[in-house]
Amino acid sequence: MTQYLEFEKPLAEIEGKAEELRALARMNEEMDVADEAAALDAKAEILLRNLYSDLTPWRKCQVARHAERPHCRDYIEALFDEYMPLSGDRNFADDHAIMGGLARYNDQPVVVIGQEKGSDTKSRIEHNFGMARPEGYRKAIRLIGLADRFNLPLVMLVDTPGAYPGKGAEERGQSEAIARTTEISLQTGVPIVSIIIGEGGSGGAVALATANRVAMLEHSIYSVITPEGCASILWKDAEKMREAAEAMRLTAQDLLKLDVIDRIIPEPNGGAHRDKANTIQAVGKALTAMLKSLEGKDGPALLQDRRNKFLNMGSKGLAA
């Protein structure tokens, strides 16, 4: 059953009526509801297109957080062959919020790392809703070093509300682990491409988005803090998250203008959660294009490319 967002309530009513008609027809074969149900389907399609044609930043936040969006595991299973997960940080524990390992993409060996939120209550708890602890980032550091040692391209899949802010995480050096992940990404002489597939929150996202090429799904978000957190700090009122989302310029469209990202990956009408297969296919096409754009560059060239990317962020927006 589709989970509807708050702004999709009118759509839920129409699609619900169409499903009720079909359910009645299944119970009574003499009923002919095909035309009426088709008319409701057409009305729902138009409404869906209108709703998603001009989403506000806050609505994009809701879509980016939709529980049914494809997650990191879905992309790895669909796009990569011979995936071999690697676990643990060789220091404290294995953090399930970050998954990664060796794989093949288009028959090319790569290292893939991503944040996994989970898809049901049990798996969400297991993966801590995608909020990694220090051992998760230290696992990422280990895998980035592995890619550098064997000259393998790195693919990062970002989907997190932010790093876990708990007492134990802070005691084990959360900020240091995130900073070191960012540092080693800046120093690694292999191609790094990153795709924000849902929510890119705070330094927990930046750590896996320090790349030569960064792409975002059309309705994903990427920001230094959540709109609720920003509203709590600026206005002492988390309910002002809509105003915060407007001011933060966290949408893919805004970030492309500021050169924070390099491309936007289109989503199906109604968001990625309504057509996972086509969304994953679109991500695969973007990934192929980004890796191809880095072909033939040696380590120093890749490092300079990455350095220039970060130094040039925001220059267009400031000039405008």
Please supply descriptive tags for the structure shown above.
320 residues, alpha/beta, 2-enoyl-CoA Hydratase, Chain A, domain 1, eight-stranded mixed β-sheet, 8 strands, 50% helix, 15% strand
Description:
- The chain has 320 residues and is of the alpha/beta class.
- It folds into two domains: 6-54; 61-319, 2-enoyl-CoA Hydratase, Chain A, domain 1 (Alpha-Beta Complex).
- It has 15 helices and eight strands.
- The chain has helices at 9-27, 34-53, 57-64, 72-79, 121-126, 134-149, 167-171, 174-187, 202-206, 227-234, 241-248, 252-257, 276-293, 299-311, 315-319, and strands spanning 81-85, 98-105, 108-115, 154-160, 192-201, 213-217, 221-223, 263-265.
- Helix 1 runs antiparallel to helix 2 (34-53) and helix 4 crosses helix 13 (276-293).
Structural class: alpha/beta
Strand content: 15-25%
CA(first)-CA(last) distance: 45 Å
At the fold tier of CATH, the topology name of the largest domain is 2-enoyl-CoA Hydratase, Chain A, domain 1
Would you tell me the overall average pLDDT? 93
Proportion in helices: 40-55%
Write down the CATH class of the largest domain: Alpha Beta
| Rg, Cα atoms, Å | 21 Å
Q: Per CATH, which architecture of the largest domain?
A: Alpha-Beta Complex
**What is the helix/strand order?**
HHHHEEEHHEHHEHEEHHHEHHH
Based on CA inertia axes, which overall geometry fits? globular
Q: Largest sheet at a glance?
A: 8 strands, mixed
Tally of separate helices = 15
Unreliable stretches, pLDDT < 50, 5 or more residues?
none
Instruction: Tally the beta strands.
Output: 8
CATH homology superfamily of the largest domain: 2-enoyl-CoA Hydratase, Chain A, domain 1
Number of domains: 2
